[in-house]
Amino acid sequence: MFDAALLNIVVYLPLAGMALLLAAPAGQDSFIRRLTLALMTLQFVVTAYLYARFDPAVAGLQFETRLPWIASWGVYYQIGLDGYNVLLVLMTAFLGPLVVAGAFTAIQKDVKLFYSMVFLIQFAMLGTFVAQDLFLFYVFWETMLIPMFLMIGIWGGERRIYATIKFFLYTAFGSILMLAALIYLVLSFQATTGITSFAFADLYQSRLPLDVQCLLLAAFGLSFAIKVPMVPLHTWLPDAHVEAPTAGSVILAGVLLKMGTYGFMKLGFPLFPDATLAFTPAIMFLSVVSIVYGACVALVQTDIKKIIAYSSISHLGYVMLGLISLNLYGIQGAVIQMVSHGLTAAGLFLMVGMIYERCHTRELADYGGLARILPVYSVFFAILTLASIGLPTTSGFTGEFLVLLGAFGAAWQQYEQGATLPLVLSATAVTGVVLGALYMLWFAQRFLFGTAKAPYQPFGDLDLRERTILGIIVAAVFLLGLFPNDAMKKTELAARQFQQLVSTSRTGVRVAAERAPASIAAETSTPWSANARTGSTP
Amino acid sequence: MSWGAIATLMLPENLLLAGIVLLIGVEILLRPPRGDLVLSLLAVAAAAAAALWLYTTGASAEPFPGHFSVSPATLLGKAVVLALSIPVLLISRDEFAEGPFHILLLSSLYGACLLLSSDSFLTLFIGLEIMSMPVYVLVLLAYQRPESAEAALKYLVLGGTASAALLMGVSLLYGGSGTLAISAFTKALVSTDTMARAGIVLVIVAFFVKAAVVPFHTWAPDAYEGASVPVTAYMATIIKAAVLLAAARLFAAAPMRGSIADLLALLPLVSIVWGNLAAMRQQSFRRLIAYSSIAHAGYLFYAFLGAGPTRFEAVLFYVLAYGVMNLLAFAALPPHADDAARDRLDNFRGLFHRAPLSAVLIAIAMLSLAGIPPFPGFVAKFLIFKNVIAAGYTLYAVLGLVGSYLGIYFYLRVIQLMFMSEDQPAVAHGKPGTLALGAALACLAAAVVLGVYPASMLGRF
Predict the structure, then answer these.
(1) DSSP alpha helix (H) spans, A24-110
(2) What is the pLDDT of residue A520?
(3) Are B287 and B219 in contact (CB under 8 A)?
(4) Which chain B residues are within 8 Å of A72, Cβ to Cβ?
(5) Range of the domain at A301
(6) Among B367, B374, B389, whose Cβ lies nearest the Cβ of A183?
(7) Which of A322, B14, B295, B451 might form a disulfide with B275, Cβ 3.0–4.6 angstroms?
(8) Angle, nearest 10°, between helix axes A395-416 and A375-389?
(9) Rounded to whole angstroms, how far apart are CA atoms A193 and A187?
(10) Largest Cα–Cα distance of chain A, in whole Å?
(11) Could you give the number of structural domains in chain A?
């Protein structure tokens, strides 16, 4: 009961913070910054406490709150933590104070409104993750758009208005179709079972004919795929990232993109298992295309932010590949990869922001040999680059390795049954790892080494605030890379539930052979970490 | 039924009538007249409170059998319409000091109340006319630009045409059924008789004109732009609400099928799409709201595709959410010495830096009108589309939702101009009056309640 109240406090603390800021007198910028940081830190501490209290042995919801909201429609205010969202909630709360601290010097215009928007988006993101009712989920999901729209549009770069409207219109289009689909889903669930419910747990029992499932998955999937984003729906992302202020980019890459993959994991695939099965080759193909295409395009970018933006597309392709493999390794790897990408991309975008504040350009060609001018900056940058590539001991390795292991595990099963496509696609995904190393290392080489040059020299190296932010991120990256067991255990039951939900047909007719490896039940939770250190690294 | 009981059941109407009489008295006796605003506010608030009180007592009776009846649903409808007009009165203070405005507004409200309780086409027509006539004058009252005359004339002619169409349709229905009761309409809906069908189409067209549904919408942008802000707010919210609630009463729970269903789906769909597309090109805030209201008329008529018992509630919730949001936008609109400059969208640039509160309030109104959660516009739209899908019109629902998507752009453009464009310090917007600000905050409070706890207005009758 107490813990359930704490979860509500975590969600509503940002909203209270926003109200406080709006009531604060104008012109108190430094007070506003400190207040925001303090509240965000408090929120993280409470979340960390809840994470520690989260019992990995309990399947289903913990710290649950369930109250009637719109009783006549069967809508409940239902929130709680489970294995699906616990890591993502922790990551969101973790990034909150870092985003705030990262914007201390960069944002000098409309400070009050800016931090109000940071609070609002934090509230909406946490709400989306903890919501266990489809209506509530949709409300939070859409609420996220508003602060991000303002954040890019007010504090963004030159083409901010184009970028922010493009962002809003892309994501809103997906949402509109999702709205139609969710209404249809709930109504048909009502028609077949007589229960009017928006609760995820109930809707997981829905039975729909295959063609309806396919249409609904297409509608939900479009919304999620735009958010991920999966090629070819990704074109809003580079613009949004390039124009967004650093804090916006960090939130976008760190958390917002995970909404798409989380949506697939929590809703899209488990709600429509038979359609998922039918679409598996297409989803797998698009995931691999995202991995390879994102990497290839990142290779030729000249804008630092765009390189990281395209690398995000590539990295989230792995998450999708892991999820669709329906192999326990793959699913858990996808979850770890989500968090890992959240940390590394957030760190890299923060670092780009730091250099931009000093030099006011994001053109890669303007830079070179920063290792000599900014040694501390370069060390942090090199670590985050390597984490992004997936060097062992960093979180990136844990995620990517598990995803590929899962993808191959699943593909091999199918190969033995005569399907070669999954194996070909998995093999192609591996080239993404090589390409990822190529573009990131080449980027780091041009950025950090070679002839020292940078506009506006001389400028100071990182100050204490910046070092602290990056130090915390790097520590988290290593923590997740070296000791992922705790995180894995807490998500394992959810991963199994996901696997079971998606691989159980709910039309009464099984459309394809069993795909999940039979040996999953025999797996222990840690065999891979011993192999991992000795395993080959791309 | 005793006269006392009749007077009690018609308390909202009677209070309005008393207000009108007192206002006329003040106008004649006091030189210069004063206290108009207080008097009309008191009358409207008392009428709203009376409607709400009657609603809580669960009053359901026919003071004039066959012509005028009350039920909890109609009383709640009246309470909503009357409550929505309070912000209109509040924002009118800075525009209209003199009496005629208040007398005309209260008369129009009296018509709206009559309309919502009408059981026969006679009362319906009288209510509709009493409601519309004063507005033709209001559009022209204290006009600030020459186009107002043209706008008022256009409105008068098209409004008259609608009345003519209604009368023609009613005569055909009367000719076929021999009764003036509005139940003749629902009976005719299921009949295949050509005369009945023609009558129905004419009546529907009359409602389409009054609610500004494409292609009968052309009067709206001109009238909205030509009228002063409180009158525009009144037309966009109360008139629309009363017309739609009356239509919901007319259609009652009649099953919708065949070509009538198509008529009630296609024209509103076109209205949604065209209203939203045309709004993108507007340079004036009031014209933008006019096209937005054309699109919203489309969503509202979509509610009639839903199953019978759901219609009135869906329409009522929608007009309340939509009305509150429109009034919020108009109440927050900062005044300007030049009426045309006041609502030129270019002058909205950087409004956030000059008038932060106004900008934030208008932004909230825009997001709600666009149907973005967590604002009440979303719940209202959700309810309508849920009913439409539940009734089996999935394709129309999807098309309507995609049409509503088209609208997002122009609402965002207003926000973009206010928050993201360079400041225009040269535009000397005044400070919003205290009463207007109070109206805006009251609307905001109502919006928060409706958005956070929609159940407060759902399942009420």
Answers:
(1) 29-53, 86-102
(2) 37
(3) no
(4) 455, 458-459
(5) 2-533
(6) B389
(7) B295
(8) 20
(9) 10
(10) 71
(11) 1
Across the interface, do B401 and A177 touch by the CB < 8 Å criterion?
yes
Which tokens in the block code for residue B65?
């059998």
B274's tokens:
């065209």
Model pLDDT for residues A258-299, shown as the tens digit of each residue: 999 999 999 999 999 999 999 999 999 999 999 999 999 999
In a domain, A130, yes or no: yes
**DSSP 8-state assignment for residue B335:** P
Residues contacting A137, CB < 8 A, separation 6+? A128, A131, A200, A267
Contact criterion met (CB < 8 Å) for A180 and B401:
yes
User: For residue B191, which phi and psi values (nearest 5 degrees)?
Assistant: -90, 160
Residue closest to B255 by CA, chosen among B191, B209, B171, B166: B191
Q: Are strands A62-70 and A75-81 parallel, antiparallel or unpaired?
A: antiparallel
pLDDT tens, position by position, A162-199: 999 999 999 999 999 999 999 999 998 888 888 889 99
- pLDDT confidence of residue B99: 64
ipTM of the complex: 0.93
Residues written for chain B: 461
Asked if B76 and B316 touch (Cβ cutoff 8 Å), the reply is: yes
CB of A143 less than 8 A from some CB of B: yes
Residue A140's closest CA among A283, A15, A253? A15
Which pTM does this prediction carry?
0.92
Report yes or no: B269 and B396 within 8 Å, Cβ to Cβ: yes
- State residue A65 phi and psi, 5-degree precision: -120, 130
Q: Are A494 and A83 in contact (CB under 8 A)?
A: yes
Given a cut of 50, the residues of chain B with pLDDT beneath it are: none
Using DSSP, state whether A374 is helix, strand or coil: coil
Q: How confident is the model at residue A456 (pLDDT cuts 50, 70, 90)?
A: low
The torsion angles phi and psi of B111, rounded to 5 degrees, stand at -60, -40
Does A199 map to a domain?
yes
Decide if pLDDT at A425 tops 70.
yes
A422 in Cβ contact with A414 (< 8 Å): yes
Residue of B385, B415, B455 lying closest to A183 (CB–CB): B385
β-strand partners of A131: A79
∠ CA A61-A63-A65, rounded to 5°: 90
Q: Where are the domains of chain B?
A: 3-457
In chain A, what residues touch B402 (CB-CB under 8 Å)?
A: 176-177
CA distance A391 to A37: 32
Q: Which residues of A touch B453 (CB under 8 A)?
A: 69
> In this structure, is residue A380 part of a structural domain?
yes
Closest-approach residue (CA) in chain A for B367: A146
Q: Is residue A182 part of a domain?
A: yes
Q: Find the helix or strand (DSSP H, E) in which A68 lies.
A: strand A62-70
Structure tokens at B200: 């129905």
Letter for the amino acid at B301?
Answer: F
- As to burial, measured by CB atoms within 10 angstroms (0-12 exposed, 13-18 middle, 19+ buried), residue A145 is buried
The answer to whether B91 and B233 are in contact (CB under 8 A) is yes
The verdict on a CB contact (< 8 Å) between B458 and A73 is: yes
Could you tell me if A168 lies within 8 Å of chain B, comparing CB atoms? yes
Contacts of A344 (CB under 8 A, 6+ apart): A384, A387, A388, A394, A395, A396, A477
Option in B386, B416, B419 nearest A183 (CB): B386
Q: Comparing C-alpha atoms, which of A183, A104, A77, A99 is closest to residue A148?
A: A99
Give the largest CA-CA distance in chain B: 66
Q: Of A232, A248, A342, which is closest to residue A293 (Cα–Cα)? A: A232
Structure token digits, residue A385: 């680059």
